[in-house]
Design brief:
Layout (H helix, E strand, L loop, with lengths): L2 H19 L2 H15 L5 H26 L2 H9 L1 H23 L1
Protein name: LysE type translocator
Main location: membrane
InterPro entries: LeuE-type
């Protein structure tokens, strides 16, 4: 990995981490996960283990995303198909929401 590529990777990782830290939806999600696991009486070792595992998974996820999208080839392909990806994901989320509403009613 060249120095330029290394800078792109760490810059991408930094942006991802900062976005995650200040994203209210992510904070709410993580609080709900932690509170569900930590609400049950557990030893201090188990509590620390849960926090370390969840934090490690977050680290690994953003590491892989930064590594993947730090590549100009992957970024180029993503940008070329961005509109299609956005539309496909939007359709999926709308159908998922409709399914949830259907099951509630």
């Amino acid at each position: 990995m060249s120095e330029k590529d290394s800078f792109k990777f760490f810059n991408s990782y930094r942006v991802g981490v900062l976005t995650n830290l200040f994203n209210m939806k992510t904070i709410a999600f993580m609080v709900s996960i932690y509170s569900g696991f930590l609400a049950v009486p557990r030893s201090i070792f188990e509590q620390i283990f849960i926090v370390v595992v969840c934090s490690s998974l977050e680290f690994i996820w953003y590491f892989l995303v930064a590594l993947l999208f730090g590549s100009s080839l992957v970024r180029g392909v993503f940008n070329r198909y961005r509109v299609s990806i956005d539309r496909g994901l939007s359709l999926f989320l709308v159908l998922f929401a409709m399914q949830n509403i259907y099951h509630i009613i």
